[in-house]
Amino acid sequence: MLHWKKCILLLAALLVLPVTANAAETAYPKLNLKMSTTVGEQSNAAVMAKEFAKVVGEASKGNIRIRVYPSDQLSGGNMSKGVEMIRSGAIDCAYEPVDVMAVLDQSLLALSIPWIFTNYQEAENSLLGSGGDYAKKTLRAQGIEALGFIHNGFRQLTNSKREIRTPEDLKAMKLRVPGGDVFVKFFRAFDADPVAMSFSELFTALQQGTVDGQENGFDLIVANKFYEVQKYITAWNYSYGSFALVFNKKTWDKLDDNTKKLLQEKAKEVCRLGNQNVVDSELAKRKLVTDFGCKVTDLTPEELQAFKSKLGEYYENVKKTYGAEACAAFGIK
């Protein structure tokens, strides 16, 4: 009789287990979020924005829906306006270039100071450490919560005029830059003519000859087909760029802890994937532009030094402009 009682109790316990497990599942609120990114839908950041929307949707059982708008669609192609819309809450979240968000605090441009990182691992370590902490703190003070960072890539130089091997080759060349002294004064040091312009306008400007060239990583050169209208590419890794996965802070602060935890976990996963994509695909993208007919020029250490030797005053100025705290955070001495 005792044996049968034990069996009945065990069976009852087993029947209760699924109910208990289901009750423990996290229920996420129903949310519809708008997510923006500056770049076109084939670019790594836009692909990662869609991946973030996908994995968050799956993990929340469809309760959290994120719609992605590439190419600054929500701000009419205006990068600075897009950042302001994130800060105001008109856009809930975004993958946004750190150098573009520097319209809120110029010290973020310290990340873009030329030749402070020699490889992607150094840059990633900085953004997982003191550099990322500084960027997050700075953006939080401006009403934006950053969850993570992915490589935009090391910036290369493309143009339609000539091969670039010496500082003199840049003289009078009209080059699109994203804005900010870190880029504008860099090219002026070589007597080039830098022009600040929104990314959404760039392909047309290159195609029509409004500008002679531009500077972006291989991911954006390929994804946006700049190589179709730019014969010459100088591979010099002169400046590192990063996208930040960000939320409007008011939107973020309204979320419950479980939802925040989910978004942080998925942001970490997607940022790790996005970084690996850039590193893994760079050689293939370089081969693609070479096969298309572009001339890719690798500068020797001596040729690079010829550029760096003209930047003494430039480095002193940008370090003063962006401040000791920002420079120290990104490892700039």
Automatic annotation (TrEMBL):
Gene3D superfamilies: Bacterial extracellular solute-binding protein, family 7 (3.40.190.170). The keyword Signal applies. Residues 1-23 form the signal peptide. It holds the Pfam family DctP. Belongs to the bacterial solute-binding protein 7 family. This is TRAP dicarboxylate transporter, DctP subunit. GO terms for cellular component: outer membrane-bounded periplasmic space. GO terms for biological process: transmembrane transport. It comes from uncultured delta proteobacterium. The keyword Signal applies. InterPro entries: DctP_fam (IPR018389), TRAP_DctP (IPR004682), TRAP_DctP_sf (IPR038404). PANTHER family: C4-DICARBOXYLATE-BINDING PROTEIN DCTB, PTHR33376. Keywords: Signal, Transport.
